[in-house]
Design goal:
This is Gliding motility-associated C-terminal domain-containing protein. About 0% of the residues lie in helices and about 45% in strands. It has strands at about 10-15, 20-25, 25-30, 35, 40-45, 50, 55, 60-65, 65-70, 75-80, 85-90, 95-100, 110, 115-125, 130, 135-140, 145, 155, 155-160, 165-170, 170, 175, 180, 190-195, 210-215, 220-225, 235-240, 255-260, 265-270, 275, 285-290, 295-305, 315, 320, 335, 345-350, 355-360, 385-395, 400-410. The strands form seven sheets. Strands 4, 7, 10, 12, 14, 16, 17, 19, 24, 25, 26, 28, 29 and 32 form a 14-stranded mixed β-sheet that branches. The chain has an eight-stranded mixed β-sheet with strand order 1-2-5-8-11-13-15-18, with no helix packed on it. The protein has a five-stranded antiparallel β-sheet with strand order 20-23-27-31-30, with no helix packed on it. It is built from no helices and 39 strands.
Length: about 425
């Protein structure tokens, strides 16, 4: 027990064939200290656990008291087991870092409580199943995750607080199907869950806007805005294991879009979007991005193509940027935008993180030159890497606000 506070009050209870590690007092796990429990851990309502070291849990975990950490610590809890593990309790459990590593079954973790992550959640092995209970995993402002794949993710609700770059580590069955959305303010909070099932019996697919041709009936995402008022930029993933084949087939008449169930009108609406392939090695194969106008149930659809360009006397968008100083395509050029000074341009990377925004965009000085001018999550005045980005343009023309969106491509070399 060296390095653990003298205020420890652990009681090892053995009742017939059931063994438990029970805490009823104050337990402090100091930095650089290891504490392991091979029995089910039970922190009673009277128990206070201050976890700043390394805590290995090889069985069930239950917290009815206080389970937290010191702000400057780097404590980590490891859930490792040879059989299924239940994570439950009447109180919220707060972790600096957490790791899931259990290969006893495909769904070895049953999440029945609220788990808060402040720094990093590592998904090494085992799906965290919170879909049948009230379980939820909350990622705070600077929290992130690693190693997510078809082998390990959250099958249930995930909440994200704040503006830091974030990929929702969600899926269903044995498929990792993340979504991405961009928040604008520190306290903005979103909750997302993915379902590999139809929702047509609740929200009929026949009730839809005229521009929608075919809706993905095999899957959907439920996105809610718990706090905040701004519109989010949402990215959904397509996977050939779950998404019907028709949504990977090219057509001259249709294009991919995100659609949302709109409760006031009781129909699916076209939120539009732009699609791109993802990097090799991901467990999903395509990404579609748009700025949504509300929050509810989302899925993917094929919609009728719109006229790709406005009338020639308005604007023309050149979506290739090669910021290498040779005077050719060095900026994101919107020809004719000078005629519409009441405008706004926003640019996001493929994960929904804002890298640029400007009002009164023009053809001379207020222009995107391939450098980040977004919030603190992306370094300012640093050249952005080559790749695909998503733009949103809004401008006022003849008293009406018009909106254009799509992808632009950054490459340091002209092609």
């Amino acid at each position: 027990m060296t390095g653990i506070s003298r205020y420890i009050a652990i009681l090892l209870c053995i009742q017939s064939i059931t063994a438990q590690t029970v805490n009823t007092g104050v337990l402090t796990i100091e930095p650089n200290t290891v504490l392991s429990t091979f029995f089910a851990f039970d922190n009673k309502a009277s128990g206070d656990v201050l976890h700043n070291g390394n805590f290995y849990v090889y069985s069930d975990f239950k917290n009815d008291g206080l389970f937290t950490y010191s702000d400057l610590s780097d404590g980590k809890t490891f859930f490792i087991g040879n059989s299924n593990q239940v994570i439950e309790g009447a109180s919220i459990s707060e972790f600096q870092n957490i790791e899931f590593n259990n290969v006893s079954s495909k769904f070895p973790f049953s999440l029945k409580t609220t788990v808060v992550v402040n720094k990093l959640s590592s998904f090494r092995n085992g799906i965290v199943d919170g879909s049948h209970d009230a379980g939820i995993m909350i990622f705070k402002e600077n929290a992130s995750h690693s190693q997510t794949s078809n082998l390990s993710f959250v099958d249930g609700r995930v909440e994200k607080i704040g503006t830091a770059k974030f990929e929702f580590p969600i899926g269903d069955d044995v498929y990792y199907r993340p979504s991405f959305n961009d928040a604008n303010k520190v306290n903005d909070t979103y909750t997302t869950e993915y379902f590999f099932e139809t929702i047509g019996n609740i929200h009929p697919y026949t009730s839809k806007e005229a521009s929608i041709v075919t809706i993905d009936e095999a899957e959907y995402w439920n996105l809610t805005q718990e706090q905040g008022t701004d519109k989010a930029v949402l990215s959904l993933t397509l996977d050939k294991n779950t998404t019907p084949a028709i949504f990977f087939q090219e057509s001259n008449d249709t294009e991919l879009a995100i659609v949302r169930w709109d409760a006031p009108t009781s129909k699916w609406i076209n939120e539009k979007g732009a699609a791109t392939d993802v990097l090799t090695g991901a467990d999903y194969t395509k990404l579609i991005t748009t700025q949504v106008s509300g929050y509810s149930v989302f899925t993917i659809a094929l919609v009728k193509k719109e006229n790709p360009e406005p009338p020639s006397d308005e604007i023309v968008i050149y979506n290739a940027v090669s910021p290498n100083g040779d005077g050719i395509n060095d900026t994101f050029h919107i020809k004719g935008i000078d005629n519409f000074p009441n405008n706004k341009v926003e640019i996001y990377n493929r994960w929904g993180v804002k890298v640029y925004d400007a009002k009164s965009y023009n053809e001379s000085d207020i222009m995107f030159r391939g450098y980040s001018e977004g919030r603190d999550t992306v370094k300012k005045n640093e050249g952005l890497p080559d790749g695909t980005y998503f733009y949103i343009l809004e401008y006022e023309s003849a008293g009406k606000t018009k909106r254009r969106s799509g992808y632009l491509y950054i490459s340091k070399e002209n092609k």
